[in-house]
Design brief:
Length: 318
């Protein structure tokens, strides 16, 4: 890849078609308000390359003009002073961690053409997220850090309820807006699945009330919820994913029903206050439960998911 410096100072490289180009870096651009133009030296700009503006603390705002279709992985990662971003309607894809750790980002305008938002794309950004109608794919932790997620009423895939992100049928909670100040959250009764990383990093949450329909909790769903002290799962819960409650350092009470079929590897790792898991059910039933990749034929088995302590399993006396 041969990099050139444009007349306006930005670095770019001509694409294989020899007609268009992609922006590869800051070059000798000296302004704190970044304008991504529709062309550079006569070459239409089609994308912003991976890590193009990585850790450019001098940038305060960025406006991406029509013509750009892809914002590459980590393109603006770590731009700590970046406060305002406007993305053109021609952009269809926002790559992994594109705006990761842009901690000052408070104003974001997503273009109407965006279809794919990769994992961690806006992780660590406090800005309100407004998802356009055309978005069909959202990666895990895409909006970790925001206090509100809104979705266009015309979007057929996703819906927002009280600022949190769900699938359009309301059955899967995809992303809790961890920037919220609320200490307690009730999961709606319509929800059957809690997605991977859904509550990850929600350090202010001290209590979560599970709706009666929850059947599965995804991997890392409550990872790092350091204020969460109890997890009382409903009778219908069937599985707890790998590392689901990893690092919940205040967690001291866990109660699960005899319908549980799998408790994933590392589900309760790094939960130093957790000494007991109360299981509502008979021992023969629980011996069939998968712990990580092993069945619970012998007890205690918590070394599988709790490397830092041993947990006693309590059975009802009846």
């Amino acid at each position: 890849m041969k990099t050139k410096i444009s007349a306006m100072g930005l670095a770019y490289a001509v694409n294989k078609d020899r007609v268009t180009c992609r922006i590869t870096g800051i070059g000798v651009y000296e302004k704190e308000h970044l304008l991504i133009p529709d062309s550079l030296d006569g070459y239409p700009v089609t994308s912003i390359a991976k890590e193009a503006f990585l850790d450019r603390a001098e940038l305060i705002s960025a406006e991406i003009a029509d013509g750009v279709t892809v914002i590459g992985a980590e393109a603006f990662r770590g731009c700590s002073r970046l406060a305002c971003v406007k993305i053109a309607d021609t952009v269809t894809e926002i790559g992994w961690g594109a705006f990761l750790d842009c901690a000052s980002l408070s104003s974001l305008s997503l273009g109407r053409g965006v279809q794919e938002i990769a994992a961690c794309a806006f992780c660590g950004c406090p800005a309100k997220m407004e998802i356009p109608a055309g978005v069909t794919s959202i990666g895990e932790q895409a909006f970790l850090g925001t206090s509100e997620i809104a979705v266009s009423e015309k979007n057929p895939r996703f819906v927002s309820v009280d600022g949190n992100l769900y699938t359009s049928d309301g059955k899967t909670l995809l992303q809790y807006a961890v920037g919220k100040q609320d200490p307690v959250f009730r999961i709606p009764d319509a929800v059957t699945e809690i997605g991977s990383f859904a509550f990850s990093g929600a350090e202010r949450l001290s209590a979560v009330r599970f709706g009666r329909s929850v059947k599965s909790i995804g991997s890392n769903a409550f990872h790092g919820c350091t204020s969460l002290w109890a997890a009382v799962l409903p009778d219908g819960a069937r599985s707890i994913g790998d590392s689901a409650f990893y690092g919940c350092t205040s967690l001291s009470v866990v109660s699960v029903d005899n319908g549980m079929q799998r408790i994933g590897r590392g589900a309760f790792d790094q939960c130093p206050k957790l000494s007991r898991i109360h299981r509502r059910g008979k021992k023969p039933i629980w011996q069939k439960v998968l712990f990580g990749k092993k069945r619970g034929a012998s007890f205690p088995l918590c070394e599988i998911q709790c490397k830092n302590l041993k947990i006693k399993f309590l059975f009802p006396q009846k």
